[in-house]
Specification:
This protein is α+β, with helices and mostly antiparallel strands. Helices cover 21% and strands 23% of the residues.
Length: 633
């Protein structure tokens, strides 16, 4: 971590001296311990709400660039967290005294414009396509520079067994083929390709293999009409893995191909197709290919790929315990990174990628909860009975990289780590509801959670199973009792540029912090550590089919709001997207997120299950062959 010192942020003069400007009054609202008087911290309700609100607003400001792992904003944030830990007397969790536990992240989604060009030529007119807007190179195709005539080969399927051969009668040797994703009749349950389930012919690797065997020097993929029904989005360059058959490849927009077809239409018998849609509708009915050269069009494609890395850090501050259990650790954590400019992980339309994704709820709220709790415990005169380790994780949005790194390189022994409390998105409270995932992962944990609510108006939704997509997961896999506090995804603005401070319920956030202060100290001061409750993760019985989504019970929708789709899962392969709402599994109505796993529990691995889904206010049916549940990493 290259630490930025003395950085001035326009409009945020309070950035590094924010806490010092608060009232000198100190009012600790707990009977567990009394507080000393220095440094000052006003715990009155009004001061608390103002303090944490100002800090969330600061972390979610445009000047911090969405706290992407490769931005200056994440360095500013890390320094801010460190400075608050130091100010309140937390010691560094790292031996060098820096508070930073550095690790490297590989940025597989970054290709600089100078490394990729795509040019088409028709007669004397040459057009250069814009990287990431008109075309996107695919790293699985490798570094290359290729030129050739453009040849349209439909879906790029060559199957003698099915009697559907789109390369028959067309010469692609030395040329670049244009291929539509997936396969014909994909919405027809009677399709010879395997009904509505994608057959092997729909796979990218199958299409690459066929094109290479026929002598093509490059391949341009274009989305099919079903995939592009809501948005014609280019695939990120790192999405597809390399296979035995490597062929230079890129994605192009449907508009690019449609513009060519308008001037050089496809012909099949007495039929003429001037757009991809016309061809797709015809082939769905007739299963007659229309492969042919796109007369007069040539293309030159060049791309080279490098995989840059960036060093980022977990920020770790420690309050030591006192007494016979002082060598045991409780981790209080949450991630401080977000999506930066949205080129990785954004749910926004393609035209909003490049806009700052401020991540006010995700996860400026959780970050400030950690900082605020650290301040409060630091001021206790009586130390906790166990060590409290506060960790602001980086790299969560890239796959929980910071928390996984900590669990591989722990700063305090994991065998002596008795609990992990994770904060991720606590700024969208509605009707005083606080969801705690993994709330019985420790024996006796539910009792502590409920008892700590005394005097609070919160309604606790204690979910036995873990909600995997956050930083508690690596600790759960190490069989450490863990919980994830969460108030919902904010529905439409999750992982978009609209996750701004104005959407945050700061009062509700303060309620979560006040509750947490009592709850964590209760965990810290138990006589005996909690045993890990292996039944608390609510594992599916052997053979139960696996879908691969995580639903959010606090999204405020009628159905199961999908907050995460596991990469490579059956749901991912079938086309589920974050933001989808499942309203029915086969004929069983789904009214809330907890109903989804119960409905799935009746189906087995390999069964094909129909899901009724609402996407962009439209209802659709997605059929999914349920898979094998993956084992813990």
């Amino acid at each position: 971590m290259n630490c930025t010192k003395g950085l001035k942020i326009k409009g945020f003069k309070i950035a590094f001296a924010m806490i010092g400007s608060f009232s000198l009054a100190l009012m600790v609202t707990t009977s567990v311990a009394t507080a000393i008087q220095s440094p000052a911290l006003d715990l009155s309700r009004a001061a608390t709400v103002k303090r944490i609100g100002d800090e969330v607003k600061f972390l979610a400001s445009d000047e911090l660039e969405g706290r992407g792992v490769n931005t200056k904003g994440i360095e500013v944030t890390a320094n801010y967290i460190r400075d608050e830990f130091k100010k309140f007397g937390l010691k560094s969790g790292v031996d060098d005294g820096s508070y930073f536990q550095p690790f490297e992240i590989t940025l597989r989604n970054i290709i600089e414009a100078k490394n990729a060009t795509f040019t088409i030529k028709n007669a004397d007119v040459e057009t250069k396509l814009k990287l990431a807007t008109d075309f996107q190179p695919q790293s699985c195709g490798g570094d290359a520079k290729v030129s050739g005539d453009l040849v349209f080969v439909g879906y790029g399927i060559d199957s003698a067994d099915l009697g559907y051969q789109e390369y028959e009668g067309v010469d692609v040797e030395g040329n670049i083929v244009v291929v539509i994703r997936r396969e014909p009749q994909q919405s027809d349950g009677e399709s010879k390709f395997d009904g509505t389930n994608p057959s092997s012919h729909a796979l990218i690797r199958s299409k690459i293999k066929a094109a290479k065997e026929k002598g093509a020097v490059g391949i341009l993929f274009v989305n099919d009409s079903v995939s592009a029904a809501t948005e014609d989005r280019l695939k990120a360059p790192h999405v597809f893995s390399k296979t035995a058959d490597v062929l230079p490849m890129a994605f192009v927009k449907r508009k690019f191909v449609n513009d060519i077809l308008a001037k050089s239409p496809l012909k099949s018998g007495d039929q003429v197709f001037k757009s991809l849609k016309e061809f797709e509708e015809s082939v769905d009915k007739s299963l007659k290919p229309a492969s042919q050269p796109l007369t007069g069009y040539t293309a030159t494609y060049e791309a080279s790929f490098s995989v840059p890395t960036v060093t980022t850090s977990n920020v770790v501050g420690v309050i030591e315990g006192e007494g016979p259990n002082a060598d045991e650790t409780i981790v209080i954590g949450g991630h401080y990174d977000h999506l930066g400019f949205g080129y990785y992980g954004s749910r926004a339309p393609a035209n909003q990628q490049g806009e700052i994704h401020n991540g006010a709820d995700d996860n400026a709220t959780g970050t400030i909860a950690i900082v605020e709790l650290a301040r409060r415990y630091a001021l206790y005169k009586e130390k906790p009975k166990r060590r409290l380790v506060f960790i602001a994780f980086s790299g969560e949005e890239r796959g929980l990289l910071g928390s996984y790194y900590y669990c591989r390189q722990p700063l305090f022994p994991l065998e002596k780590t008795v609990a992990m409390v994770n904060y991720d998105m606590i700024g969208q409270m509605k009707n005083n509801n606080l969801t705690i995932f993994g709330g019985n992962s420790g024996v006796g944990m539910p009792e502590i959670l409920r008892q700590s609510k005394a005097g609070s108006e919160l309604t606790l939704n204690i979910v036995p199973g873990g909600f995997a997509g956050s930083d508690h997961l690596p600790f759960n896999q190490k069989k450490i009792p863990n919980m994830f506090l969460h108030t919902g995804t904010g529905s439409g603005f999750y992982h978009t540029p609209d996750d701004d401070f104005e959407t945050i319920n700061v009062e509700g956030m303060a309620d979560v912090i006040d509750y947490s202060e009592k709850m964590i100290i209760a965990l810290a001061n138990t006589k005996e550590p909690m045993a890990y409750n292996s039944g608390g993760t609510r594992r599916a019985r052997r053979g139960t089919g696996y879908l691969g989504v995580q639903s959010d019970p606090d999204a405020g929708v009628d159905g199961a709001f999908i907050a995460k789709v596991v990469e490579g899962s059956p749901a991912d392969k079938a086309g589920f997207k974050v933001g989808d709402v499942i309203t029915k599994v086969v004929d069983k109505k789904i009214s809330s997120a907890p109903e989804l796993p119960r409905a799935l529990g009746t189906y087995r691995t390999g069964q094909k299950v129909n899901f009724t889904v609402i996407r962009d206010k439209k209802e659709m049916i997605i059929q999914v062959p349920l898979g094998e549940r993956p084992s813990a990493q």
